[in-house]
Write a structure and sequence with these properties.
Number of helices: 5
Distance between the termini: 87 Å
Number of domains: 1
Shape: flat
Largest sheet: 5 strands, mixed
Order of helices and strands: HEEEHEHHHE
Strand order of the largest sheet: 3-2-1-4-5
Length: 207
């Protein structure tokens, strides 16, 4: 009596099935998008520059290991940070007639706060144990402060919001000659309200 042959497994078919399962997994699986900050970094500086910043032109933001916000040596709620940054940037403290006078600033013009947006610098330092969520939230509030002022100036000069036009160009909705024109106008607004956001190396917890 003859022996029954053992059926062979078709390795080629198994590979095809595995490939199809992989494609199915990639198509049907939802991968959560990480939060992050989209920001264009300035070009590297070829030589070191000694920059002296007046204390009144420096807005210091600290975040400790417990995610507490200390702004200009005072505790502050996150919800108040944006307006505090706007008040600092838009202060316009340089006296009238001086080269640093800001004729478009609408702040209190306090001699103890920033001279103009070009001179104003926001310095941020976090603790190494600061949560990533708090880090992102602080950055978002500060960038929103800059964008609020940029929107105001772009409305005054051109009748549109800076953030909307920037988004339109980034997403390819504005192209051609109009894009070239808008890009020049965006640069003009950026010169009026430059984003000068400095971030120090995170300090060790407890310091």
């Amino acid at each position: 009596m003859g022996r029954r042959a053992t059926p062979e497994v078709n390795a080629g078919s198994m590979a095809d099935i595995a490939f199809l399962l992989l494609i199915f997994f990639l198509v049907t699986t939802t991968i959560e998008k990480d939060k992050g900050i989209a920001r264009q970094l300035p070009p590297p500086i070829e030589e070191e520059l000694d920059v002296v910043i007046k204390q009144k032109n420096l807005f210091i933001v600290n975040v400790n290991k417990s995610d507490q916000l200390l702004v200009e040596d005072e505790l502050m709620e996150l919800k108040d940070l944006r307006q505090a940054a706007i008040d600092f940037l838009d202060n316009g403290g340089a006296p009238a007639g001086s080269p640093e006078y800001c004729n478009y600033c609408k702040g209190k013009r306090s001699a103890e706060s920033s001279d103009n947006p070009q001179k104003a610098v926001i310095a941020v330092q976090n603790d190494r144990l600061t949560s990533y969520e708090m880090y992102i939230s602080v950055q978002n509030e500060l960038v929103a402060a800059y964008n609020t002022l940029r929107n105001r100036e772009s409305q005054r000069l051109f009748g549109w919001d800076y953030t909307e036009m920037k988004k339109g160009i980034d997403e390819g909705q504005i192209t051609g000659e109009r894009e070239d024109l808008i890009q020049e106008q965006l640069k003009e607004v950026q010169e009026l309200i430059p984003l000068k956001l400095s971030e120090a190396e995170p300090r060790k917890s407890g310091k």
